[in-house]
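Justification of resources, computational component.

The compute hours requested in this renewal are based largely on the per-chain cost of generating structure records like the one below. Each record pairs the submitted sequence with a full C-alpha cell output. That output is archived, and it is also reused by downstream analysis tasks.
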Amino acid sequence: MWWTGEMSVTEHPPAQPALRLYRDTGAKPSMGLHPNGVNHLALSTTDMKTQLTFFAEVLGCPTRALYWMHGVPNTYHGFVELADDSYIAFVQAPGNPTEPIWGVTHSGNAGDPVTAGTMQHLALNVDSIDDVLTMRDRIRSHGIQVLGPLDHGMIQSIYFAGPEGLSLEVCTGRDIDERQWIDPDVQRLCGISTDELQALTTPAGFERPDEPVAQPAYDESLPQMHYPAPVRTHLMGMPDADVWKNLSESTPPVALD
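The structure output for this chain reads:
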C-alpha cells in the first residue's frame, strides 16, 4: 500500500533485475526516442465484469489480466488486449462514483464538451476500412447502435457507446501529413506562432546522459501527480533504486508449472 498516508512499502518485494545504464549495455538510445504507442489506457469502472464482457463479446478483445491493483487497497485491475503491446485497463475501486455527469465527467459522444484533462472519446484502431465495416456489423449484431462510417480524410471512423457512458470509436488511418492537416486558422486561434509550430512538428532530440537526471524540486506551476503533500514528498524523495526495489510487485497471482 505504498501510496497511502501510512507511506508504507512492500515488506518482501520479489527479486527484480538490476536497472542498468546504457553505458553498461553498450546500446545508446536514439536522440529521437519518443513514446511509440499506448501500452494501456486505464479507465475507471464500478462493474469490472460488465466492462470485460463488453470488450470481449462486442469488440472481440480478450481479457489478459485481472488482479488486485498493486499498492492500492481493495481495488481490482483488469486488462483487455488490443495488440500484444497495447491494452485497455479498468480500475475498480470501492469509492468510484457510479453516475456520469454529462459535460463534466463524460462527454457522451465524440463531439460534446467535457472537463479539461479528461478523456473526450476513445478511438480504437483497425487496419482497413473493410475492418471498420466488419466492426460496425459486429457491434450492431449485439444490439448496439453505430454511427457511420464517416470519412475524415486522414481517418475513417464509426462511433458508438460503451458501458458506464464510454464514448467509443473504431477507425483506420495512419501517416498523417502535418502539411495538410494543420489548419492555419486553428493554429492562430491556439496562439501558436510559426516558430512554435516548427518546434511542435519537429521536437528536439534528447541525449541520455551517462548518469540519471536528478529528481527536480517540487514546482507547483508544473504538472504534478495528486497525492497528499507528505505522501508526495516521501515518494518523490525516494531514490529510483529504492522505488524499483521496494515498490515493485512483479509476481503474477497464478504460478505456471
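Helices lie at 22-25, 48-57, 129-140, 178-181, 184-189, 194-201, 229-237, 240-247. The CA atoms of residues 16 and 245 lie 7 Å apart.
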